Amino acid sequence: xxxxxxxxxxxAAAKGGEFGLAEGRIIxxxxxxxxxxxxxxxxxxxxxxxxxxxLRTIGVxxxxxxxxxxxxxxxxxxxxxxxxxxxxxxxx
Length: 92
Known about the structure:
This protein is an all-alpha fold and 92 residues long. The chain has helices spanning 2-7, 30-91.
């Protein structure tokens, strides 16, 4: 029977307006709004950090792309030279 007494719920603390203005009013949403603002600020900070990282690493990506473009250009030039040499050897 002691367990039954301990297991019974107590009266809600908000009953009767004991805590003043903040109880059950729109101001009681201040904490959830503040936490939502903190969450949005965290998301924004992560996004701006990602932008900075992209900006920092774009030079490396650009260098790799330029090297790849140069290699492709050299390969095209080599194939063009071989085709011209083959055409010259067939015509003579």
